[in-house]
Amino acid sequence: MTEIMPGAPAPGEGGPPRRPPGPAPAGYIPVSYPSSPTGIAPSQGPVEASLVPPVTKRLAWRWLFYAVVGFLVGQIAGGIFGLVAGAAEGKTSAQLSAIAQSSVPPEWYVISTLLGIWVGFVGAPWLASRTAGTKRFWRDLGVRFRPVDAIGLAVGPLCQLGVAILYAPFQHDIHNYNAPTTKLTGASHGGGIVLIVLATALLAPVAEELFFRGLVFRALVRLCTSVRSGPGTARTTGLVVAIVVDGLLFGLAHGEWVQLAGLALLGVVLATMTYRTGRLGMNMVTHASFNLVAVLSVYGVIR
Hints:
This protein has one domain. By secondary structure, it is mostly helical. It is built from ten helices and two strands; from the N terminus they run E-E-H-H-H-H-H-H-H-H-H-H. It has a two-stranded antiparallel sheet. Helix 1 runs antiparallel to helix 7 (191-224), helix 3 (107-132) runs parallel beside helix 7 (191-224) and helix 7 runs antiparallel to helix 8 (233-253).
């Protein structure tokens, strides 16, 4: 029999996890399973297993609370960073207000606001790991990569194709569908294009996956399923609810109503990936390739 320790080695990374000597960390609950090479009960997935933080429903609610606070902090920080960058550029309040409403803001405004948002998106998972996890940030959030994650390079463009098919019947009724992506790419040129591509196709996927699949989805899975229940309708329903809710929250967080369905669909795909792999590696690669296709299409590289 093995005592399961939250944050212990993942499957294939050091054998059955055991609680180390000394005081147990906050939220630790001993759970015993028959001997298993992974330390995970056969009925469990790699995200819902008892060794994966948050280890209790109470801690899962705390993770969701941190997510709400992190989202709000990110929005506020984005506004503050934009003001600071505007002041550095010598812009007046009236000029900054016009830039914020512009359909093609300058790259310095886009980058500064994104940096502010990422403060909340990365800070909330870090706080959850420190106060309601094992304090091992990368392991708690599932940040691990494997060679197989390269599949995401193809899945991202396929998701873009799926979104295009989803919206195909409504193309004549949708005006300026690419407006959100155009606003992100801004009025960039020269070196600014490199910064925008780096921010949207590399940094944004990392921050958003840490927040939506590392923090939010793991909390939802813990709340919607039980580590003590075997395969059945209740467990399957709980997983579906967690995946769909995570996808909807991902879409809603972008604040783009026309793109909501497409973004929610992408969120569902990414949440399913997280559940199946127990990691964020494939998600980040898929998210990055999805964003890259969108940005390159706006710049005319892909048509």
